[in-house]
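User: Please fill in residues for this 524-position structure.
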């Protein structure tokens, strides 16, 4: 019996360790997000000016529009490490965040079968994988996991840890606008404790004071005011919620991340792993019998529903589901069949987790570009040169271009990074700035020739940079190439750069002009 227990323990430890290796492998990719370049530029400006931005300075059509930069601390941290360690640090930060998230779940009070937990952790990483990149979501996932650990340990006999919860919330409120989730987590624990006291069902022999958790709920709500934008910053998450939740908003209709999880077959490699993971976690809760945590379960069901409504929410739902599974794997119901079943399944689950973690780690690092999960990420360190329009930006710099650029929103962040303030962009990924009016203008500019001409004339924009890989943008590029007053001067596998004909750019155009025939061939 002792030998079997030791073997079971070793398998669980190996499987848990392999899940952390998988987390590091999935996170070890070259940054390629459209947000990262303007995050870097903003972090640089904040440290230089010692002030957060209040209005938009990057876009020529949104110049002076109010900008509540809820991610300012994330930007400062990112720029700080990038400035001192280079692009290597971005990947290192992402790997550190992934490992820290996993460590939080291993720090939970441990009375659960480790092999089963490791298997659930592997499923968790596969579900989280599409969101596992260095963007403000990464610290959000960590803050969520850390709050769960603090509150769970306080519930089980360490109430002194509660003073850490408001500190985590203050940090979170300055890293990303999703900090109200922390308030929701505290409310869940207050509700669980109140329910336990009402039923007198705290089987652990410890009953933390209800008022302590009530004070934490108040403190976590008040922590939302501890950011540089005051009441406006406190209310800003409501704007984000409205954009994601309401079907009537233009953001919901046109931004892919806000689309329902099952809206397109293109999302299946994200939808299927998340659905499988969610089903396993909910099953673990259901099988725990009388030990089920009803308020925590309801909270998770709400987050799962939000993830189904908008696929960008799969990350936060996955973190909450991982915690739900971890606390229910204990199967504290002494008369149920689940504890015995869990013990029998543990060694096999641990071995399966170990094999899956090793296989997926190798799969993630072996290929130059990751295709198995449809992310297209490149393993390694340093910025991705596949995603960012480095060659087009180099050309603009080489000819001394200064002025406004009409651009694809996914390229705006990189243009800000490379050329602001000499360049002002038309659009970037900060879709909340300017509201629906700005978003509608952006879409109209690439579908209505009249709107495009009025925009280019009104703002004297003499450069256009777009991606020509989507059908809509390809058609726009072809139509623009047919116009006499625009010339195609750069074309690669992803982007097309046009300059407006005129004395200022005639020399650059004559040296680099690309024919319509070449564009058509590239399109094919």
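Assistant: Residues filled in for all 524 positions:
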């Amino acid at each position: 019996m002792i030998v079997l227990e030791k073997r079971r323990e070793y398998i669980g430890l190996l499987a848990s360790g392999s899940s952390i290796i998988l987390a590091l492998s999935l996170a070890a990719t070259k940054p390629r997000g459209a947000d990262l370049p303007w995050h870097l530029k903003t972090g640089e400006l904040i440290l230089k000016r010692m002030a957060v931005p209040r209005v938009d300075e990057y876009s020529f059509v949104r110049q002076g529009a109010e900008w509540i930069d809820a991610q300012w601390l994330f930007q400062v941290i990112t720029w700080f490490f990038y400035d001192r360690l280079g692009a290597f640090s971005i990947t290192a930060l992402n790997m550190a965040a992934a490992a820290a998230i996993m460590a939080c779940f291993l720090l939970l009070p441990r009375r659960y079968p480790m092999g089963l937990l490791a298997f659930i952790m592997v499923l968790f990483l596969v579900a989280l994988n599409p969101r596992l990149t260095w963007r403000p979501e990464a610290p959000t996932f960590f803050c969520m996991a850390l709050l769960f650990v603090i509150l769970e340990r306080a519930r089980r006999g360490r109430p002194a840890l509660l003073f850490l919860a408001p500190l985590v919330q203050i940090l979170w409120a300055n890293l990303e606008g999703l900090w109200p989730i922390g308030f929701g987590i505290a409310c869940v624990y207050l509700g669980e404790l109140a329910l336990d006291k009402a039923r007198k069902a705290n089987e652990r022999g410890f009953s933390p004071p209800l008022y302590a958790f009530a004070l934490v709920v108040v403190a976590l709500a008040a922590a939302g005011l501890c950011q540089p934008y005051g009441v406006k910053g406190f209310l800003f998450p409501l704007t984000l919620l409205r954009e994601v939740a309401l079907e009537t908003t233009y953001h919901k209709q046109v931004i892919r991340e806000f689309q329902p999880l099952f809206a397109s077959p293109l999302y299946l490699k994200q939808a299927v792993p998340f659905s499988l993971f969610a089903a396993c976690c909910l099953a673990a809760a259901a099988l725990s019998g009388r030990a089920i945590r009803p308020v925590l379960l309801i909270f998770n069901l709400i987050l799962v529903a939000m993830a189904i409504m908008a696929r960008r929410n799969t990350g936060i739902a996955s973190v909450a589901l991982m915690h739900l599974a971890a606390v229910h794997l204990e199967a504290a119901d002494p008369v149920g069949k689940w504890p015995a079943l869990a013990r029998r399944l543990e060694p096999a689950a641990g071995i399966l987790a170990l094999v899956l973690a090793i296989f997926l780690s190798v799969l993630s690092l072996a290929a130059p570009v990751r295709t198995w999960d449809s992310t297209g990420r490149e393993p390694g360190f340093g910025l991705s040169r596949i995603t960012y329009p480095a060659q087009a930006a180099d050309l603009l710099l080489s000819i001394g271009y200064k002025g406004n650029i009409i651009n694809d929103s996914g390229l705006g962040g990189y243009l800000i990074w490379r050329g602001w303030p000499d360049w002002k962009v038309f659009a970037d990924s900060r879709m909340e700035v300017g509201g629906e009016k700005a978003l509608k203008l952006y879409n109209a500019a690439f579908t209505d020739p009249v709107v495009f001409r009025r925009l280019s004339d009104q703002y004297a924009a003499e450069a256009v940079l777009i991606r020509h890989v989507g059908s809509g943008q390809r058609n726009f590029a072809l139509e623009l190439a047919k116009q006499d007053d625009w010339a195609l001067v750069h074309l690669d596998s992803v982007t097309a750069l046009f300059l407006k004909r005129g004395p200022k750019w005639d020399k650059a155009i004559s040296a680099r002009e690309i024919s319509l025939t070449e564009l058509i061939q590239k399109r094919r």
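For context: The chain has a mean pLDDT of 86.
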